[in-house]
Amino acid sequence: MPPTSTGQQEPATDHQDGAENGRAKQRANEAQEPKEKIEGKVYKDYLKLDSLLNNVDMMSFRHGNPVHDEHLFIITHQTYELWFRQIIWELDSVRAILNVPIVSEEDMLTILQRMNRTASIWKTAVEQFAILETMTPLDFMEFRCYLAPGSGFQSLQFRIIENKMGQKMENRVNANSIIESFRDEDSQRQLRQSLEEPSLCDLLIKWLERTPGLEEKGFNFPARYTEAVNKYLANERENMEMETDPEKRKGLEAEVKKQRDTFASVLDEKSYNEKIRLKERRLSYKAFMGALMVNCYSETPRFHLPQQLLTILMDIDSLVTKWRYNHVILVQRMLGSKTGTGGTSGYMYLRSTVSDRYKVFLDLFNVSSFIIPRDYIPELTIEMQSALHSTRLSGTTLGYRMHRFSEPSLKPLSF
Amino acid sequence: MPPTSTGQQEPATDHQDGAENGRAKQRANEAQEPKEKIEGKVYKDYLKLDSLLNNVDMMSFRHGNPVHDEHLFIITHQTYELWFRQIIWELDSVRAILNVPIVSEEDMLTILQRMNRTASIWKTAVEQFAILETMTPLDFMEFRCYLAPGSGFQSLQFRIIENKMGQKMENRVNANSIIESFRDEDSQRQLRQSLEEPSLCDLLIKWLERTPGLEEKGFNFPARYTEAVNKYLANERENMEMETDPEKRKGLEAEVKKQRDTFASVLDEKSYNEKIRLKERRLSYKAFMGALMVNCYSETPRFHLPQQLLTILMDIDSLVTKWRYNHVILVQRMLGSKTGTGGTSGYMYLRSTVSDRYKVFLDLFNVSSFIIPRDYIPELTIEMQSALHSTRLSGTTLGYRMHRFSEPSLKPLSF
Amino acid sequence: MPPTSTGQQEPATDHQDGAENGRAKQRANEAQEPKEKIEGKVYKDYLKLDSLLNNVDMMSFRHGNPVHDEHLFIITHQTYELWFRQIIWELDSVRAILNVPIVSEEDMLTILQRMNRTASIWKTAVEQFAILETMTPLDFMEFRCYLAPGSGFQSLQFRIIENKMGQKMENRVNANSIIESFRDEDSQRQLRQSLEEPSLCDLLIKWLERTPGLEEKGFNFPARYTEAVNKYLANERENMEMETDPEKRKGLEAEVKKQRDTFASVLDEKSYNEKIRLKERRLSYKAFMGALMVNCYSETPRFHLPQQLLTILMDIDSLVTKWRYNHVILVQRMLGSKTGTGGTSGYMYLRSTVSDRYKVFLDLFNVSSFIIPRDYIPELTIEMQSALHSTRLSGTTLGYRMHRFSEPSLKPLSF
Amino acid sequence: MPPTSTGQQEPATDHQDGAENGRAKQRANEAQEPKEKIEGKVYKDYLKLDSLLNNVDMMSFRHGNPVHDEHLFIITHQTYELWFRQIIWELDSVRAILNVPIVSEEDMLTILQRMNRTASIWKTAVEQFAILETMTPLDFMEFRCYLAPGSGFQSLQFRIIENKMGQKMENRVNANSIIESFRDEDSQRQLRQSLEEPSLCDLLIKWLERTPGLEEKGFNFPARYTEAVNKYLANERENMEMETDPEKRKGLEAEVKKQRDTFASVLDEKSYNEKIRLKERRLSYKAFMGALMVNCYSETPRFHLPQQLLTILMDIDSLVTKWRYNHVILVQRMLGSKTGTGGTSGYMYLRSTVSDRYKVFLDLFNVSSFIIPRDYIPELTIEMQSALHSTRLSGTTLGYRMHRFSEPSLKPLSF
């Protein structure tokens, strides 16, 4: 089996079949294989504890100056790396499932479960900084001298996670030194590969572009939304004009103008594309419209799961930012403005990564700027409604509704 | 170097010198050793990531039925085992520092730092159950069949932690099966050894017995405390007798009687020892008096650190109980009342461990029953006060107090 | 407007219309009402801060013995009561939405959002105990004497929450003293009313009984499930009989027997009802079958939301148990085994509430005992599948699936 | 009684006596007052629940368009305001205790307990954002229109906390609009008063300036530290010069130069004062030296409590920053870049407050830049050591050390 991105051998994964949930396939495989007797294992052999727990090699001991806290330093980083491995496992799986022409609702459930898990891991990763904070700067200084040229900057798995999420190289503060910091060929190869594969963000964009209802010849959400926004802005202007107090009116005028400018940037595809060019937006116009549509109709059952996906992606973005922030705080406390062990600029570099440019899904946060009140959101056509919505049918007096064959079908949509 | 309790090779630790903080010694060692050039390592070599991350061997893949979530199951358990290793590292160090005739205040600071760290690890361990809870019973059932005869019951490090904390075999629900569950000689040897060494609880008892102020010929805290309790109870009785409302009086009478009975169990050494015989108490009489004294005077600077130690030990007891509880909930959700993978009785067994009998430091919680209001706590004698207390000296009008050579010395106490 | 359950005036709520999402209705109401000018408010008037923040009346001050920490004691309890008010608000709304013959998927989304919110509040409530734990037993003892006859036992809102969740009086350790502990008529009236209204558990049972697929003349899940279990048990028996090692075989025999007994209790309605009579089960047979079915098919989109509801209810049950446990620990640390301020037995009483009998949704946890491996779960019939499932239709080559009028309709089910 | 800073009536507090722990005084007061019979209260009267819970006045109801989630919005803000009241209570108490010429170790214990409590409250405040995040942008938009001109920007208590901590007006992004945003005289008065009183940061500076060991004619830490740094830098330079690899040497040279520049800014009082003038430092030179000294000797018992105080202040700074960050994220999700309800610029304004300039105790974080390895830290003189340190005395072979009258006294230092 070929080595995988994390450097260790691992079996081919079930999700390489993409949208196929893989389970049926697995069972088929199982049937074909001759069932040889595979011995069960006791706990410590199953988890390979003899090997796992045997990787603490304290430099301070090697230098004849044993420092108690170096043990903590190593173990903490090792737990992070184990969790990073798990995050990559989930990301690979989710990207494979998304990387198909159609994503069914079952697949969406699987994706959501795995992204929620990823968020849960990040939450633990954020909070477990408290453990390392029990070390003092004086403790750290005792073994810090032995750590060079090592640096957390060299965590390959962390870089790979960033890349697989969709962190753009061009948004990085020091893109060049990242690739350079990995000297061995294998690491560099894995890093490059993670940049070449479609990232979660790339796949999300394609998926959002397929949002049902965007088609010009169908529901044409962009057109209806434009109309709705114009109605809303006109109403705001009317309210403004009815204001008699001159000072308040001045405030409202500014507000109305600001809103008009804000909305202009999404109502017109060209203006929007200009923002992409200026790197102020990353989602394509169509994808952005998809995200907007999902937000507008998130309370209809069919748009609920998509909305959950957008939400969990923002959650993860926030959690990663919090992780970076906690990391910054820790480094600031341990080192102040001293140079980092690997020669990195330490605090100042890390501080610069706690910013919006390191948020992969920043555009999703921005969608909120363009949501209009429920009353203005264009009503779904009967056709769309029947597709997306569980309408209240007559004749559903029993405990639950029976389907009837002659009715317009209300297929669950998958997109 | 000999294999240690956790099965992996590791260097002799600094704390084997006991109370010696070890740092001076370390520097001496360093001086003696010829300083050969030791090469620094990059991040992945320092953390031995190639070895660390290469321990995921999914049984479902071996059986030709790959199950995505088994990866999570393995990684989660591995992070637990890494943290357990760290907890053992801290426990060993703290026990060595405590295992001396005198524990200085500097040593107490080190102990507190390390026990706080241990609590912080347990906190993460409690909370990271949320990650494993993202797996469903159906997911688990897909690979559960491959896990037998493995069982979390077989975590050697967890047993060793329990033993080193001071979990008594006789308090265990199924003491016999625990030793049996480890089939290899090395594990059994480590387990036995962890039972033979003085546990944290044993050492705590000895340390509490040395609490300054307990001596009969000195401050004689037990005698003064007895007197104080009697005054307090007499006052309560007086208040009761002044009550004219018959119903209220009845309530107060019962209350006074109950208090009298409660206090009787600690005022008389024989009654107390009877409770030890009945396994209702674990601390010796003298140690219990020490704990009581620390609680009574915790607001004097010299008793502050000892009080912090008692508090953090209760915190850890509570956290371990919460860990057990979360474990129980998880098993209940995954398995209901099904038999555990290693043939254990699963939920019912685990449920039985979430009880007070599994609290090592239960007696410390009980101390609160015997605390009396501040006004009744016996005043420190001038001698004790000068030893324990920063009294407000005359002539300390400057920004801080200067010491004067002719005064009674106010040495920091170490015990 | 009449006073509500929490003693304060509050407006009629939107959810009193039950399943009607209420929004359309609201807008209609709005249209009818004359729109008089309502003045906006600044922050402090909107939140009524002058009134809200003016409710700290420290008894220790009244007694001329001001104790700093009583302020914390009051504020902490007040924040709990505010959150309890919010929990009641959510519970009332969710019960109203559930208390109808049919619950649509939109309604289910609303229910889930509000129960998730409730869980989130409980999470904060569990964790904020850490704040009160910064008070020491000595601090508490300074003002505790002034608190009688008050007691947390008298929190009306907490009792109402228990009742509205469905905590049965007969499962309470001291049901009588609970009603007695509220002396004023209004509190007693509210308490009784909360017992008379259908609880969340009552409504859940009715809802589960309506699970589509339970009908004898339709999919008849109970029959199919029985068949599946028998096949599964037969297979287990076969495996057992193939085992040649006598000792292992003995273990497997015991295991097979135990499984047979376990399953017997649900396969036969009479045996199950006997368990209800013995108070070992609370859900009706039909409701239990519904819960089992939801679990079995939770990976189909239509059963996903129902499964999420069952999960969040278990989460809340666990969180309330953790809240009780943290409360117990706090009381144990503050009081030891002293009598509680309201004359309650303090620690021992509270300890008794941290048990399975105080779990309202205990049966949902038990469902896991009866889940069988995915391979044995009865396949959905084409009819059920088309109702519940997004099947992979031919002709769905575009980015998402178009509905066709002539097909069997795939209506989203609401139940 | 006069209204206090938070607008509500409250009793004079015990800490207005400053360093006097107040307890003795309280008892005296108690003795003097005639003990009239004060009736105990039941729970709901003690907590004034009828008044407390009666402050929910939903604007959406007033406008005839009831929105379920407005209830959550109000309750959440109310719990924040209750906690803010508690934080002010603790801050006032701690500032009073610090605002004296000498702070004893007992007082330091009280300060630490209360600042730890404050940190614990902030932790809950940070985490309970999760509750409000269960509201969607669409939900919020339904009642947001009714909220103007209210804005969280108008939280008086939050501003008062910032001021009492020591947030400088000149560091605020929009200092002017803050005072303007409170229209009523009383709020403005309170705000001004909070700016005039000595802040926690002011008092910390004075306290640090009194650090024992700074005196020129005594231990003269600054001089010894300067010497130590020079020795350390000389050693670093030597190591650099021994490096033969030209590239590595170049790196080391840059590193040495950078260190030299860094240290220059604290070794010379004038350079340091220049940094104050440029607003890059806030602590006075002497206070900074005090903080540095506390850090260097934090492992001696006497400097342990001071170090704990510095640490908890940094913790609080970090927590407040996290609170701001969570607030930003919430606003970003709810509003995008829309204008805030009170006319504030919403997201962009809030984003600007999540920066180092809003950290009151930033200089404490910077101290780490100037810590040198343990081996270089100047040894305490015998005189200092006997004052600060529990030296290992001969003749202390018993379980704990007895004081002897003829020895140099080892008084606990208070500063």
From TrEMBL, chains A, B, C, D:
Residues 12-35 have a biased composition (Basic and acidic residues). Signal peptide: none annotated. It is an enzyme of class 1 (oxidoreductase). It catalyses: L-tryptophan + O2 = N-formyl-L-kynurenine. Keywords: Dioxygenase, Heme, Iron, Metal-binding, Oxidoreductase, Tryptophan catabolism. Pathway: Amino-acid degradation; L-tryptophan degradation via kynurenine pathway; L-kynurenine from L-tryptophan: step 1/2. GO terms for molecular function: heme binding; L-tryptophan 2,3-dioxygenase activity; metal ion binding. Gene3D superfamilies: 1.10.287.3810, 1.20.58.480. Its EC number is 1.13.11.11. InterPro entries: Trp/Indoleamine_2_3_dOase-like, Trp_2_3_dOase. PANTHER family: TRYPTOPHAN 2,3-DIOXYGENASE. Homotetramer. Dimer of dimers. Heme-dependent dioxygenase that catalyzes the oxidative cleavage of the L-tryptophan (L-Trp) pyrrole ring and converts L-tryptophan to N-formyl-L-kynurenine. Catalyzes the oxidative cleavage of the indole moiety. This is Tryptophan 2,3-dioxygenase. It comes from Ramazzottius varieornatus (Water bear).
